[in-house]
Automatic annotation (TrEMBL):
This is Beta-glucosidase BglX. PROSITE patterns: GLYCOSYL_HYDROL_F3 (PS00775). The lineage of its organism: Bacteria, Pseudomonadati, Bacteroidota, Flavobacteriia, Flavobacteriales. The keyword Transferase does not apply. InterPro entries: Cellulose_deg_GH3, Fn3-like, GH, Glyco_hydro_3_AS, Glyco_hydro_3_C, Glyco_hydro_3_C_sf, Glyco_hydro_3_N, Glyco_hydro_3_N_sf.
Length: 741
């Protein structure tokens, strides 16, 4: 038996090796036939006819350039018909090198899933992998080869609008999610239902100063390696085919022209074999940064630093040939970039069939697949976070007679898609998305009377709708209020200095709360918002983010207890903007405050608590969980040994529910100081009422290692705290161990 397994394994390795060899040979053979212009053509990417996702450059010669092999890739071309049309142009070129179609398939293609930050709140890695898989299946059937996702930027600043696109503030959680998403998108590359992932934005884009998009980033090497790079490495370990660089400068050097990031770390130390695409126009933007004086210098800096493909700057198109002729760019650099791109085109099977992914029948089947909608509904429900539930206002009883549903987002459809959704021209998104109103109607049918009032707009100071809203609230047994951001208030270039509920929304909540009726507030947003009055006064709050196509049904499932909420915050929610950046895994300082009231000569604000309003990892359920019986298999270990941590979790409430059991560690003393608490593992478990499960975690050297002052990854002997919590601020069980010399 063993022999058979070994032989099969050897055979598989041999086949994989010979296939790879064939691809490399094919790439080399093709490269030999290419002129310099054709090579440079492979390094260009143009936007197509669909909505531009950046400042558009007009190129009237686009079509003829594709026909002459002067362009290798396009973005923003949607659907089998359009991708086919452009591919037909490429097939008229001398060498018939197929185009690569890239697209921002960030949280679904036609079936829209929750925004990535919302999905991260599910802490459900399988669900996130599945949503990426479905997005890939739909996009690939429409002719897309490549998604510009996942975004794995760690984000500790909710003023930055792009927090909606990532997995939040934590490196460990972010790395696990990055891995799952890459696996989901890519499946098995080359299969017709897979797309290449593009891990972005390399690197440290999430640390833009002041949370202002595109702003500079200034950080220590240790911070870069310890906090910002690991999710990229995890995505690479999952097999990510491509990377995108970034708009920001890092310590004075734009990421796009940053050799240290792209050549030394990514292609050097990490041995990345795929290719790097620039961000939209980011090669040309190095002129504005003041890093280069013109487009020619920009092209030189970018190609030298390791940016293989130019998205929309036209810097490579106009300058690379001249730079080669002037011997400023060695042809080997161009060849390397071209080979990286061609290799992917071969791996995708595009040379065998350039239309392989543009298949109308598959498109029709994939885009209208009811299973996809079912998954979208389930994942949306899992992404909702129950922030507060006093007096058991939730779940709403199905016997309730009259329900008032109030707010500017109740009847919206498209808003639920959030930022970075794909808008297919032929789809009417005003029909495609289940509104919250429709979701409620679907849920209650004729059993309850539903009343509706808009109350107010999302922005502006008009309170004319208040009276009607108060009137229907007075007639109802329970009131649900749906408020928050517009979908385009969080996203690219959507930084906000003020994170309060906009307009008169909080005043509307106050007016409705004053009726004395039980109130449930739904907060729809792409980022953590600040809503202190609501948090302190309203009995029930669900943070619903933006949930996608099935938003309305998923929200109704949670409101009525058909799904027991299980989401946990992937970012800390600040009390005031003045606390930002705010994150749970901070250092202790030399003068930590002993409690929230202590301010004198300690590290604290004199006018505000240090703690967030809602902490990282926090989220309630309709049931309760008890933690007990923490055991460590050893309390002293050598670095080669492992500790098994076990504990019991009991569902002590009356309904089934899911809990995210979180393992945190603290390294008490280090040669560089360590955070007061760090997430190092978690498990999401389901328990029936009364059920107990034993959970096991393993702690090994990897989990207790960190970058020392010389940037070496080490585990230092000494004492460690082990903390098991229901959130980063709700530690239920604690023990410690020692790492011996
Ligand atoms: C700019 C964004 O930063 C990037 O994430 C996106 O993929 C490109 N535009 C293409 O739309």
């Amino acid at each position: 038996m063993k022999k058979i397994v070994t032989t099969t394994l050897l055979l598989t390795c041999f086949i994989a090796f010979s296939q790879q060899k064939t691809i490399d040979q094919k790439v080399d053979a093709l490269l030999k036939r290419m002129t310099l212009e054709e090579k440079i053509g492979q390094l260009n990417q143009y936007t197509g006819d669909n909505a531009a996702t950046g400042p558009i450059t007009i190129n009237p010669n686009k079509q003829s350039e594709i026909k002459t092999g002067l362009n290798g890739s396009m973005l923003n071309v949607l659907g089998t018909q359009h991708t086919r049309q452009y591919q037909e142009l490429a097939m008229q070129s001398r060498l018939k090198i197929p185009l690569l179609f890239g697209q921002d398939v960030i949280h679904g293609y036609k079936t829209t899933f929750p925004i990535p930050l919302a999905e991260a709140a599910s802490w459900d890695l399988d669900a996130m992998e599945l949503s990426a898989r479905i997005a890939a299946t739909e996009a690939a059937a429409s002719g897309i080869h490549w998604t510009f996702a996942p975004m794995v930027d760690i984000a500790r600043d909710p003023r930055w609008g792009r927090v909606m696109e990532g997995a939040g503030e934590d490196t460990y959680l972010g790395s696990r999610i990055a891995y799952a998403r890459v696996k989901g998108f890519q499946g098995k590359l080359g299969d017709v239902n897979s797309v290449m992932a593009c891990v972005k934005h390399f690197a440290a884009y999430g640390a833009a100063i002041g949370g202002r998009d595109y702003n500079s980033v200034d950080m220590s090497e240790r911070m870069l390696w310890e906090t910002y790079l690991p999710p990229f490495k995890a995505a690479l370990d999952a097999g990510a085919a491509t990377f995108m660089n970034s708009f920001n400068d890092l310590n004075g050097i734009p990421a796009t022209g940053n050799k240290y990031l792209q050549r030394d770390i990514l292609k050097g130390k990490w041995n990345f074999k795929g290719f790097v695409v620039s961000d939209w126009g980011s090669i040309g933007e190095m002129i504005n940064h003041g890093y280069v004086k013109d487009s020619k210098e920009a092209a030189l800096a970018a190609i030298t630093a390791g940016s293989d493909m130019d998205m929309e700057s036209n810097a490579y198109r106009y300058n690379l040939a001249q730079l080669v002729k002037e011997k400023k760019v060695p042809i080997a650099l161009i060849d390397d970039a071209v080979k990286r791109i061609l290799r992917k085109k071969f791996e995708l099977g595009l040379f065998e069939d350039p239309y392989k992914y543009s298949n109308p029948e598959r498109e029709q089947a994939a885009l209208n697949n009811p299973e996809h909608r079912k998954a979208a509904r389930e994942i949306a429900a899992k992404s909702i976070v129950l922030l507060k539930n006093e007096k058991s206002v939730l779940p709403i009883s199905k016997q309730t007679k009259t329900i008032a549903f109030i707010g500017p987002l109740v009847k919206e459809r498209k808003q639920n898609m959030g930022f970075w959704s794909v808008e297919l021209p032929e789809v009417d998104y005003d029909k495609h998305v289940i509104s919250q109103w429709e979701g409620l109607q679907n849920k209650v049918g004729n059993t309850a009377k539903l009343l509706y009032a808009k109350g107010c707009e999302i922005e502006g100071d008009n309170k004319d709708g208040f009276a009607e809203a108060i009137a229907i609230a007075n007639q109802a047994d329970v009131v649900i209020l749906s408020i928050g951001e517009r979908r385009d208030m969080s996203g690219e270039a959507k930084s906000r200095s003020n994170l309060r509920l906009s307009g008169v929304q909080e005043e509307l909540i106050k007016a409705i709360q004053a009726t004395g009726k039980p109130v449930v507030v739904l907060i729809n947003a792409g980022r953590p918002l600040i809503f202190n009055w609501t948090a302190d006064n309203v009995p029930a709050i669900l943070y619903t983010w933006w949930l996608g196509s099935e938003a309305g049904n998923a929200i109704a499932d949670v409101l009525f207890g058909d799904y027991n909420p299980s989401g946990k915050l992937p970012m800390s929610f600040p009390r005031e903007e003045g606390q930002i950046p705010i994150y749970y895994n901070h250092f202790n300082t030399g003068r930590p405050a002993k409690n929230e009231n202590e301010t004198n000569y300690v590290s604290a604000y004199t006018d505000l608590k240090n703690s967030p309003k809602f902490p990282f990892g926090y989220g309630l359920s309709y049931t309760t969980f008890e933690y007990s019986n923490l055991k460590l298999s050893k309390n002293k270990i050598k670095s080669t040994e492992k500790i098994t941590v076990s504990l019991n979790v009991t569902n002590s409430g009356k309904v089934a529910g899911e809990e995210v059991v979180q393992l945190y560690l603290r390294d008490k003393v280090g040669s560089v100081i360590r955070p007061i608490i760090e997430l190092k593992d978690f498990q999401k478990i389901k328990l029936n009422a009364g059920q107990t499960k034993t959970i096991k975690f393993s702690i090994d050297k990897e989990k207790i290692s960190f970058y020392n002052a010389n940037l070496q990854w080490v585990a230092e002997p000494g004492d460690f705290d082990v903390m098991i919590g229901s959130s980063s601020a709700d530690i239920r069980l604690k023990d410690s161990f020692e790492l011996l010399n």
